[in-house]
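Contributing new records

If you add data, match the layout below exactly. Sequence lines come first and carry their own label; structure lines follow with theirs. Keep one chain per record. Anything else will be rejected by the validation script.
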Amino acid sequence: MALLSRLFLLVAVALLPAIAIQSYNEFDLRRSRQMEVQDQALGLARIAAAEQQQIIQGIRQVLIALSELPAIKAKDTGACNAYLSAISQRYPAFLTFVVVDMDGKSLCATNGRTTNVAGRAYFANAVRTGEFTVGGFSVGRLTGRKVIQFALPFYGDDAHIGGVIVAPLSLDWLADYIARMGVPPGGALAVTDRDGTYLAHYPDNDDFVGRKMPAAKDASMDHPGTTATRDLDGVERIVGYSALQAESGGLLVSFGLDKTLAFKGIQCRTRRGIFLIVLSTSLVLILTWLGARRFIHRPLGQLVDAANQWRLGDYDRRVNIQPRQFEIVRVADAFNTMADALAGRERELYHAKEKAEEAAARITTIFESTTDCVLIVDPDWRITYLNERAKAKLSEQRDLIGMNLWEAFLDAVDTDISILLHEAMSKQRLASFEKFCPRRNNWYAINAFPSGEGLAVFFRDITEHKHAVEARRLIEEQLHQSQKMEAVGQLTGGVAHDFNNLLMVISGNLELIEDRAADSDGVRQLAAAARQATDRGARLTAQLLAFSRRQKLNPKTVHADQLVRDFQGLIRRAVGEGCEVKLVADDRLWPCHVDPAQLETALLNLTLNGRDAMRDGGTLEIEVRNVTLDEGAIAGVASGSYVRLSVKDTGCGMVPEILDRVFEPFFTTKEVGRGTGLGLSMVYGFVRQSGGHVAIDSVVGVGTTVSLYLPKSSRMPDAEAEVVQMPALPAGSERILVVEDDDDVLEVTSAMLTGLGYQIFCARNGTDAIQILDSGKSFDLLFSDVLMPQGMSGVKLAREVKRRDDGIKVLLTSGNAGDVLARHGAVDEFPIISKPFRRADLARRLRLVLHEA
């Protein structure tokens, strides 16, 4: 927008308050005039209403006088007709007088004609109320003219209503009457009935009578008021209205004044004010334009001309504005001073350019002497510089200066190199990466340095380095694989060794049982020894599962310090009197979410290891603390809040070679027969499965500290469930379908269940079990192994049985109860008991399953 236009706009804005004040005065004047006209219309309406009220009261008095005539009371038709004919000449405004009986049939009339008014509303209202009644607009049945009916009941000598006197008033007479009331020019006087129908109107009575009043919906029949409306003749009027009293029929009298005539004087004044405002505004704008051209536009033109010369490098040009008393002269002097400064700046830039060229030459020397390839591109990715080393590797006898980088090197388009360089350019952020170029079969280390002038790319060939790193990685993988195989060999050898020992115990004791079958006490002892060996095998299997993190956990929210306090009695008995046990715990310990039984087992393993490390006695300290770890505080542990359970002994400690292998399965430093080497492996697997971490620190001759980091739980500790004491060997008589593919296990299981009193039916796989169910036999419980041949597992069989009969209970069994349900997607779907199980455990579990809701 030009300066003059802005100046004009500013002046126009400055005039807005004056225009607003004038507009407000005009509005206030029109509002005052509006109130004056409304008061005038309302006053005239009230005067006219008072006159109409007097007319209706006179009509009422006439009808009251007629009701007292003996001829009418006696219903003397001849005398009544004669009197009504005489009185009608005294009151020419009434078209006729009619006296009707209670059925609405005429008894007598002015002209002697008969009629029936039984269907008229005014007649029904007069009979119902027994009072003087005013009707509405109607057309007389005897005369056929527009009238308004007035009715008054008369009473006979027996004091009962004998009939009704009806007097129809001619609306033509009413129109002549209001026309003589002196309505001013442009005014309108009207009388309407209670329904808003015109009874009389001045002027143009014939165009209004019988039609609805436009303002009837706005007029209140109870209170006087005013409204602005456009009448039926199209004239907009301010109408005052006043309603007659209810006993006078509730007629509405309105008096309207022509709005155009009422505001004619104000409109002339408004037009004159608008003209003066436009004239004064135009004069101000013209004077402003002339002054701006003389005192602003012309001097500014001189300044612009001088600035254009300075832009072209002619700093000798100066601005001279006359007369000197103008404020803009100060601007011109500032421009001249700026021209002097620009001339000095030009000389400085020339010297700076020479120095920059010298610096560029030095940088080029550096780029040429570096062992890296250097390439510089502008913001449009056009190559502006390559050092000699880059030309030798990339140019391929081409002149790359000025070429687009991606056109010059098509093999880099849409690659990771292209993406990373674009990101460095767009985000103005340093990029450093290593990428393989398939076309050149080389690895490159690339560093990109963005700037406002583009991107400087340094790269070097690191193919040989990459090959060396890859060779080292392969060697490390081979070493890792050999270590893994060594661990598997130790695991396999340990399992074979321990299970061979267990099998030897079981086999030898069973042979002795056969030889000494007659000695019942000896048989019982040997059977107990065999059962103990079986329990050792079950514990060994549990330890293997713990190390592989495949055991089934039953986690709860517990306070570790309370668990240790409850368990420390057993710990003191386990370590013996030669060791002192200390417990240190924070006052407000955080809860943690772990399996309490597994945590107790892990704590027992750690205390026993500590006891064994202190052959001559010592102090065993159990510490429970709240700790918050930062990122990287302990290798392999995520940052967060933990409960740290530490077991510290003052034993012999471990050398680093042993410390690195303590968590390996079957690795032990104890004598043969004193440990399986699975204790710390079980602890490691349990803590990792619980989302925690195990750390161990040992110093030879000082002692060892094992710390369990258990994640903090946000839930409160679980309430302890009430322990239900079950009978030692609960029996039953229910029908049980046993499904087991191993004949020996099936036989011993059937013997256990039969001994408990149950009715047993056996099946060797899922297919046989389905056939038994299809035969029509009913069962209370399905007891099935999970892993079975012929395609149907115990889980699938249980689902099929529940689908057929939801009332059958299900109990599953497996040698790996915790993992097998997860692999079959049935965790918490069915109850399960682990193998090997004792008869007492099986008996209690069966009663729980059979009696559950």
